Structures are given as structure tokens and as C-alpha cells.
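Entry 14. Ran structure prediction on the chain below.
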Amino acid sequence: MLVKAFGSAVHGINATTITLEVSVSQGVNFYLVGLPDSAVKESQQRIDSALRTNGYKVPGKKIVINMAPADIRKEGSAYDLPLAVGILAASEQIKFENIGDYIIMGELSLDGTVQKVKGILPIAIQARKEGFKGFILPKGNAREAAVVNNLDVYGVDNIKEVIDFFNGDKVLEKTVIDTREEFYANVNNYEFDFSDVRGQENVKRALEIAASGGHNIIMIGPPGAGKTMLSKRLPTIIPPLTLQEALLTTKIHSVAGKIDSGTSLMTKRPFRSPHHTISDIALVGGVNYKRSCKNTIDIANNT
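Output, C-alpha cells:
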């Protein structure tokens, strides 16, 4: 039987929907095609262990999985959950009538636990754009995806919850976030503040001028003089992010995997403190230098 499930691939800060075509027929062997990388190919072992732990199994038949479009490289372990669901549906171990209504993403542990993945916000935005009814994903990523309205977001802890959901034995709880309320409640909630600083009046005055005029600033001094301390507090006197800027910042942090489980939206201007020995190449993205430059251009064009 042939069944189609849906996942997504992230390129830069944008996502592309991936159709997982799973065919189970007479024969022996497991074929995974469509430019998967090593992490995707290794999903076979994780899926097999996760299903056996929860009372299911990978059928001992010929299984062919095509990840379309086949000319886009698929990377990472986030396809474990949709591949597992597709195999179960194609082998008629679960019901599959409404699988096509959902984007499914998540990494599987050997016991069936669903682990957090990167790039959830761009995936959720693309899912809403393409008219999917909902998004099934790890519970640790649920608040991040719930920023996108008009999309039902279901966070799960274990693959058994997903199986029971499609079989109609369990109702998953939707994660709902009021994006504007979340944004305005945390927009000025900073960990550091200039009120903590005693002295350094000349430097604080220089930072105020730089912030108000949009100027660059360079601080020179011995270690321990307070350069990093003052720099950390500079974002607190810069005008706060707009909602659009916050969404763009959240997309970038999402792709980088820098969003905590309890965070839904990045509301504060980011601060980075690279080591003073960092190279120019590492500063703009390391081995992904060319990709980083392209993404920077794309971000500037979309702002």
C-alpha cells in the first residue's frame, strides 16, 4: 500500500514541504531515497526500536520511501516521526485517512520518546501558507510553533500519543499562544540593566549617544575594565524590537536551535559575545560562510 505523509526541510530561514511517499509491498529490503543524509538513513534503526518498544513493528516486507522533491537534500533526524507514521500507515497498523492533513516532525529516541528539533517556526509558517490543518511536533517545540495563528499545533512526548491520535483513541491537546500578548508582556523584560552599573559615566554617555544615533562604538581597555559588562546592557537602551523584527529574530534562533522549551517568541534584541581570538570566517558562520552571507542578504531583502 502507498501512503503519503508530510514533513519539511529548512534551507536558510525558509522551509520547503517534503512529501514522504511510503510503499509497503511483497518482498524484502528497506529503501530510502530522495537525497537523505546519514542522519536520515540512520532513522531505520531508531524507528525499529521505538516501534518495538511501543508494541508495533517495522513489517518484514519490501519498504520503499521516497522523500520528494528528490533533488533537495534532506538533513537531520527530524524525519524520524513522519517516517515511522508513514510506515505504520502503509502497513495498515494504524488508520491513515487524515494523515495528509498534518505536517509531522520529530526525532525519535529508542524508547519512542519524541525529542526537540531545529527550525520549527519556519516550518509552521510554511505549513499554514500551504493550508495544512495542523502540525504534530515535539512538546518542547510546541510553544515556538504556536506563534503561528490559524494552525493547530499538537505537542507530543511519545510516538504512542501520535498513533493513538490517528487511531481515534486519544485527543491531543492544542497549544495556543496569543502572539501579541506574549510579545508585549516580555518586550522590556531584560536580565541586565544600566542601573546595575556604578561609575563609568563617560562610557555610559558614549553608549547612549551611539544607541540614540545608530552609531557603531568600539571600547578599548584591559581585561576586567567593564567592556563586556557595559556591552551586555546596550540592548536595554536601544528601541525595542517590533513584532515583525521579533518574528524574524525568532526564525533565525529557531533554525540555529537556540530557543528554549518555554520560549515562544524572541522579544529582546540579541547580544553575542564572541571570544577575542575569533577569526573573520568564524564570526560570520564558520564553514557555512557562503551560506551565511546568502542568508544575510535574504534577511535584508525581506526586512
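Residues 292-303 have pLDDT under 50 and may be disordered. Will compare against last week's run tomorrow.
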